[in-house]
Amino acid sequence: MELRLLRSFIAAAEDGNISKAAARLSLTQPALSRQIKSLEDDLGVPLLERGAHSFSLTASGELLLREGRALLERADHLEQRIKAAARAQTLRVGYSPSLTAGILAPAMEAFSQLHPKARVELSDLSSTEMVEGLQKGALDVIVTVPPGKEVPEMVWTPVQKQRWCVAVPRQHALAGKTTLLPADLDGQRLVVYNQREYPDYWALLSGWFKSQGIKARVASECDGVTSLISAVEAGLGVALVVERIACLVPERIVLKTLQPQPAPVCISAGVTTRQTRDKVLAVFVEELKRAGEVFASGSHHGE
Fold this sequence. Notes:
single chain; alpha/beta; Arc Repressor Mutant, subunit A; five-stranded mixed β-sheet; four-stranded mixed β-sheet; 43% helix; elongated
């Protein structure tokens, strides 16, 4: 029995409609029908009771649907284990420096002590690139803020909650204030992350600005934390950033406490459902959690 044919049968049985299942599998309806017929011929039993415009499962079809799901899950798990072994225990990690500063390094150090033969490959990516990389199998784990919309077949483990602060050039008029109010940001030139690559950052900020009655004035969009810090340092504007960025900012920038706060950011480790049984990967995620807990007590809260 070919797994390819089994997948086609299960898709049709779950959708209850050949046309819908064919579209989901990127097949034509006749091609899917032929695959199911081929599976029936291989097994020597009918799996579907076909009507003029619909079908129902036979007793054999019901049994294959139940057992076939478990079989495919085991096959997928075996495939992931074989691929992981072929990579010689290499973990491909997508991350954002502004979110993982002070967390990723100690987690990697602790992980390497537990798995000295494992290699960790880091990729500095935008939130959109991380999710896409994980879905396509180019990454094993990502450390970022989970998207606002649910992503299928993805599991998130909270690592640390971070508060917001405002990055201000040291010579800026707001630099002399101890705490900033929402009204202090009204009409200010803002330096922000690129909307296309950081859609959830934009959604959170625009929602908070609207709730506070603040008129946003975007002066510069940046493709990452390095360019954002450079833009603020150059005096192009102020930026709303998470507090952990304190590890990265130069002396010409000060971080100011913001009250009231937008909702805190929940930094999380994301993996696919296919990888939840990977023990080495689970250890790495656990060390991320541990590092997040340790560094939470030393969080920077602005000047």
